[in-house]
Structures are given as C-alpha cells and as structure tokens.
Amino acid sequence: MLSTQEFLSSCRPCLGTSRKTHVFRRRSSSISGMAPPILSLALPSETGRVLSIQSHTVQGYVGNKSAVFPLQLLGYDVDPIHSVQFSNHTGYPTFKGQVLNGQQLCDLIEGLEANNLLYYTHLLTGYIGSVSFLNTILQVVEKLRSINPNLIYVCDPVMGDEGKLYVPSELVSVYREKVVPVASMLTPNQFEAEQLTGFRIGSEADGREACKILHAAGPAKVVITSINIDGNLFLIGSHQKEKGQSPEQFKIVIPKIPAYFTGTGDLMTALLLGWSNKYRDNLDIAAELAVSSLQALLQRTVNDYVTAGFDPQSSSLEIRLIQSQDDIRNPQVKFKSEKYN
User: Fold this and answer.
1) Can you give the residue ranges of the Pyridoxamine kinase/Phosphomethylpyrimidine kinase domain (predicted)?
2) Which of 103, 145, 167, 296 is 20 to 30 A from 257 via CA?
3) Residue 282 burial by CB count (10 A; 0-12/13-18/19+): exposed, middle or buried?
4) Burial class (CB in 10 A: 0-12, 13-18, 19+), 65
C-alpha cells in the first residue's frame, strides 16, 4: 500500500500548480477544420460554472444527485465528479457500486486540463471517505485557483451527526488543519462544527462563537445548518466581510418535521451556494431562500408518502426533488432571519 506521501507524489503530474491564464484551445475537426467552442466557457452563465465532487447513487437523491439539479435550476453550469457510484444510498439493506480513488480523480482532472476545460468559478465538495482522497481534493483546490484565483470553494465537511462520526477519525484533523483554511464557505452541522473547533455548542452564543473560531481559521462565510438545543432547531449564519472585522451573524428558526430524510444536507449546501452567489453581501437573504426551498420540499415529501399510504416516521425518506423544482427556482420565503446585534 502506498504511503500518503507516495500517493500524493503519484498525483503531482496531473495536479501541478504552475500559474497560467486560461486560454480556450481550438481543436481539429475532420468536418469543419475546428471543433465548436465549449459554450459554458465561451459564453459563461451569469451565475457560474461549478465542479461538484460528491457521492452518486443510481436511485434516489443524495450527494451529486441532490446537488446538481438544483444548481442547474438556479442557472449554474455544473460538472459532477462522483466520489462513489452506488446503486442506492447505504441506508438500504444492501448496495453495490464503485469507489473513486485519488489517482482516478487525478486522471479526470488531468483530462480536463489537457483540453483547457479546468476553469471553474466554484468548487463544491461533500462526502469524502478517506484521508488520501481528501488530500487529493486539496491539490484540486490549489490547481483550480492557479487557473482562477477567485475560485469560491464551498465545503460541506461531512463527518457525522448527533454525536457520532461516520468517517474515519483521521479525517477530522485534515479538515481542521488543511481544508478549513482554504474554504470560502463552510456548511457544517452542529456536531461537525464542534469537531472542527474543539468547542462544545450548548447555546446560541456557543454557536456564534464557533463561527468566529472558523472565520479565524479561514472561511469568510460559515453556516451551521442545524443546531438542536433544548428541543429547538435553528440555523446560525455568519459572514465576515473583512478579515479582523466582527462578522454579521443571524439565525433562522426551523420547524421540526417528524421524519428522517436522506440527501437534505447535500441539497442545503447546494442551495446555499446557489443563492449566496446571487446575494454575495447578504448571506442572511441567501439562507432564507435556501431554508424556505428545503422546507417546502420536505413537507411535499411527507405529504406524498402519506398519500401513498406510508407512515413517514417509520423509515428514512427519499426526497421529492423533481416534484419541488418550482420551490427551488422561486421559493416563497416563509422563514425569516433574525440578525444578532
């Protein structure tokens, strides 16, 4: 087995960091003398071009299946790389599929770079299952920023929930020491924020302080997507617009729906990316739109399971993503933020 250093060395040829200006390369064509342009590069959308590295399932909506479609609805060009490809999510009795390793990720990045296709405005990452793959992600960040120094890296540090890790414990220190410093926006849940800061969140004030600790480490935007204190569920957002300044902070109270859903964290982070890029100086507005979309989708999911004669509290539920596209494009804002002084 390769050591981490040997593994990283093997990836360097495809993830070198020499800085260069992005130039669209004309390619030969037997019909017209050159290939048509890549329109997402030649005529970029007003929103952006996203590289999303997450899990993928054939059936159901988690990882990229939960993130790509909403971002496309919001006007983004999205290129997905699947860190795993499974038949279904792992909550089923069984699943089959493949896991992408670090060298295979290198190969994909190398292929994009060879054809001058590696210009992105955003990088989005979700579930990562190994230290070696996460270290390769860090090299991808460096490579993308060598091409576009203004790249926005949105990281959902998927590690666990409700006091339990579901990734190897070694990933925590890599996230804390290497990933957080290069992220533009972080979207941890309560447990993940505690893991990243070493700080227990037992109150709203603790949640705000955890955001400040994370700002000091790197990201300008932090959204702790779910905090559960004394039976109350809420989100805390924090935007430090200039280093050294006090961040603008807010909360959104979220109603509890008595059911368990898969893919909601992946969807929430995608929605936060989508709306925060449209409202760059108003993270509170972006969060209101994201929460309102998500809550409408979850309520529709519950209602549809009831209509189908299934008790929504008896098992994890597959979200009704396609049926909720209007709520994603044009959400009715029913959940307002409350700014902290």
Assistant:
1) 129-231
2) 167
3) middle
4) buried
Q: Is residue 7 pLDDT above 50, yes or no? A: no
Tokens of residue 68, six digits: 């790509």
- 300 and 256 in contact (C-beta within 8 Å)? no
3-class DSSP assignment, residue 123: strand
The per-type count for the chain, helices as H runs and strands as E runs, is 11, 14
- Contact by Cβ (8 Å): 230, 206: no
CB 319 within 8 A of CB 300: no
Instruction: Give Cα 240 to chain centroid, integer Å.
Output: 20
Mean of pLDDT values over 72-85: 94
Are 211 and 238 in contact by the 8 Å Cβ rule? The answer is yes
3-state SS, residue 108: helix
Rounded-to-integer distance, Cα 241 and Cα 222, Å:
11
Residue carrying structure tokens 């929460």: 291
Superfamily holding 44-339: Ribokinase (3.40.1190.20)
For residue 329 the two structure tokens come to 């494009």
120: exposed, middle or buried (Cβ count in 10 Å: 0-12, 13-18, 19+): buried
* C-alpha span between 202 and 229 (Å, rounded): 7
Q: How far is Cα 70 from Cα 14, in angstroms, rounded to an integer?
A: 30
State pTM to two decimals. 0.89
Stretch (H or E) spanning 49: strand 49-57
Interatomic CA distance for residues 3 and 1, integer angstroms: 6
Helix 204-217, helix 190-197: angle, nearest 10: 50
pLDDT digits (tens, 9 = 90+) for 40-52: 778 877 789 999 9
Output the CA–CA distances (angstroms, integers) from residue 27 to 30, 203, 232, 255, in the order listed. Answer: 10, 58, 57, 54
Helix (H) or strand (E) holding 250: strand 248-253
Query: Which residue, among 125, 127, 121, 128, has the nearest Cα to 144 in the 3D structure?
Result: 121
Whether residue 3 has pLDDT greater than 60: no
Measured CA to CA, the distance from residue 154 to residue 219 in angstroms comes to: 9
**One-letter amino acid identity for 78?**
V
What token pair was written down for 278? 């449209």
